Amino acid sequence: MATKYSRQREEIKHYLASRKDHPTADNVYMAIRQQIPNISLGTVYRNLTMLAESGEITRLRVGDGVDHFDYDTSPHYHFVCSECGRVIDLDMKSFESIVDIADANFDGKIAGHVTYFYGKCGCCCHKKGN
After folding, report:
1. The whole model's pTM is what?
2. Which of these, 83, 106, 79, lies nearest to 92 by C-alpha position?
3. Range with the lowest mean pLDDT among 58-67, 95-104, 115-124?
4. What does the alpha-carbon distance between residue 20 and residue 69 come to, in Å, rounded to a whole number?
5. Does residue 96 surpass a pLDDT of 90?
6. For residue 3, how many other CB atoms are within 10 A of its CB?
């Protein structure tokens, strides 16, 4: 069943497409309010959930207690800064063969994987005292 057009959803997708910093729902809400002042946080959450469930965006759960959203749904990896909390795309080849390796000794069928790398980002490493 086709989803009905929604200006709010299109604005959310447009915003996410312009970002590489993997914003949270609150970040998206604050930005979209500039375009649509009467939008509610609930509307943003519902649309982000719908877009993630339909595969149009990716929901990232990096361990900081909030969901981050990524417009790029292609297989790629993320780095999470343990100091400032930034979520950054890593420029590296996807190693899909890890699924085959994991699947070799598993009594079932693995459909995919999620990998996050953690540490300090360049900005935090270059701060005075680090």
Report:
1. 0.85
2. 79
3. 95-104
4. 10
5. no
6. 10
- Residue 90 carries which side chain, given as an amino acid letter? L
Residue given tokens 């929901």 in the structure block? 59
- Calculate Rg over the CA atoms of the chain: 17
Cα separation values, 44 from 13, 17, 75, 102, Å: 11, 15, 25, 37
60: DSSP letter: E
Whole-angstrom distance, CA of residue 37 vs CA of residue 7 = 13
58-94 pLDDT tens trace: 999 999 999 999 999 988 999 999 999 999 999 988 7
Rounded distance between C-alpha atoms, residue 40 and residue 49, angstroms: 14
CA–CA gap between residue 71 and residue 52 (Å, rounded): 9
- Nearest-angstrom CA–CA distance, 55 and 71: 10
Decide if 87 contacts 78 (C-beta within 8 A).
Answer: yes
CA–chain centroid gap for 39, Å, is: 22
